[in-house]
Amino acid sequence: MQYSLTLPCLIFLIFFGHESPQWCLNKRRISAYKRCIKFACKFNRTDLEHIQGHFEEIDSLTSANVDSEKNDEWNFVTWITGIIRNFLKIGRLFSNFTLAFRTIIYSYIFITVVSVYYTYLMGIKDLFDLPLRDYLSLTAVFDVPALVIVGILLELIGRKYVIVCCFLAAAGFLLMSIAFPGSAIYSSSLSRAFVNVSFSSIFPWINESYPTLYRSSALGFCSTFGRFAGLSIPYLKSITLFGDMSISIMFFGALMLSAVSCIFLPETKGKRMPATINEATTLFKIEKSNSSKA
Question: From CA 31, how far away is CA 183, in angstroms rounded?
Fold first, then answer.
């Protein structure tokens, strides 16, 4: 079943996916850059005439028509070199205190959202001894509206504030499940729905917080910690030996800490995506200066 769901996405990416134009330009893949821009113009029904001058300027600046075609060629050596280079890029995520602090917080947030979401996704049915029909109904009632609303809220409110509010709401409903055990099944489902919203929101937030060349490395590095957290979920059932609500208490503390941690991260809504390490580092400084002017 997993292969049947993944294969169409893989085919779509291979035949219809495009690299980021800025990434192609930074890698001096000029012909690939032109293809991306032409595709975007065609998709948006924009006239190509106004970008011809831009293409000529790029060609004159690079003076690498031959080199760009050479860089577009794929071979095993360049593939291995690219993998090694990507590993080395992870070190750049810790090149200064601001980026290192940001990377650590994002990694912790991934651990929290993956642990809470998948624990209750997999465990609600067993913890509360629910029939499969009731379990699927709860999932549809709480999770589907959350996924629909998240796209609207991200553009209206912003990434940081949506995620902070979702963490606080998720922690509040977990606290309700501790205080009122009789409503634990519904409050836990609502908590999972709010974590689902933050889980969906964290991906664009991370991508907008790092420069183009380090964006995939940052997302991969931070999400890896979430994968490790996912591997530990089957062992969390042993925590219930200390009490039925011990998992809820632990996750309540983790969600509150995540909400506080998000305050120290930059808001990226409406801001130009950083292209360099320097621009990514000054994101939060720009936000503070704009707020002080307002």
Answer: 60
